[in-house]
Design goal:
10 helices; elongated; about 0% strand; about 260 residues; mainly alpha
Length: about 260
């Protein structure tokens, strides 16, 4: 009797156990694909942001407050051209830094990095998810900031918006890629709130120059004839270069 019981136990629990009659064969679970991993991580990012409201409200409030300060400091009824483009992009840049600084903080403090490294998934999925999350935060920021810019400083936004949307999109992609890369590097240090902006701002200066150069003709009154195509190409190439750099080095940043 005991031998039979022992044999039954070995049959049920041993490594070489075979399925009983009528029981479907068990297949080893496959790791999720890259797209499924990105979708799961992105969903987690949105849930955390909706519950904590740590990034987007602070970014939007900073941008609107800065436009209010410019409104009273300039003593002008409206701005246009280079002045309007400079105010817009410098404000958006510094507002974006608030989101960059918080991008990996929850993962570092609550063990998210360790859990992700133990999972059998493509590690570049975390780069894609974080970059997409930061990109969506920037879009949400601009939904609030651009109308506030038009209301408080009265630039020529009416005829600029179709082309300005393309400039915003290209600049947002670059900020999201560089911000994700720098945030992953700085979050491992004690002085991450200081190191993040110090590393990111020099890398983001070309984006500000290109975006302001493309936006200035669109915000000029009367509308300038100069086309911003040269600046748009510059922004697109810069986005491509840093996208490849981030893809190449992100694995090493996670392990270190």
């Amino acid at each position: 009797m005991s031998a039979a019981a022992g044999g039954a136990t070995d049959l049920a629990t041993g490594p070489a156990a075979t399925p009983l009659a009528g029981e479907p064969a068990r297949t080893p679970a496959r790791p999720p694909g890259t797209l499924a991993t990105v979708a799961a991580l992105l969903r987690k990012e949105y849930l955390v942001e909706l519950r904590t409201l740590e990034s987007v409200p602070g970014m939007a409030l900073f941008a609107v407050s800065t436009f209010v300060v410019f409104h009273f400091a300039l003593h002008q009824s409206s701005v246009s051209g280079d002045e309007a483009a400079g105010i817009l992009w410098v404000t958006l840049l510094f507002a974006a830094m608030l989101g960059v600084n918080r991008l990996f903080v929850a993962d570092a403090e609550q063990g998210g990095f360790d859990g992700f490294l133990l999972a059998p998934v493509d590690r570049t999925a975390l780069l894609a998810a974080k970059a997409l999350a930061l990109l969506s935060y920037l879009v949400a920021l601009e939904v609030v900031a651009v109308p506030a810019f038009g209301l408080l400083l009265d630039p020529a936004l009416g005829h600029a918006l179709p082309e300005l949307l393309l400039v915003l999109a290209l600049a947002d992609v670059g900020v999201a890629l560089i911000g994700t890369l720098v945030a992953a590097l700085a979050v491992q240090t004690r002085a991450r709130d200081l190191l993040g902006p110090l590393l990111a701002l020099p890398l983001l200066v070309p984006i500000v120059i290109g975006a302001a150069g493309a936006s200035a003709p669109l915000l000029r009154v009367p509308l300038a004839q100069a086309s911003p195509v040269r600046w748009l190409v510059t922004l697109a190439l810069y986005d491509l270069v840093f996208g490849l750099i981030a893809y190449a080095v992100f694995d090493f940043l996670l392990e270190d």
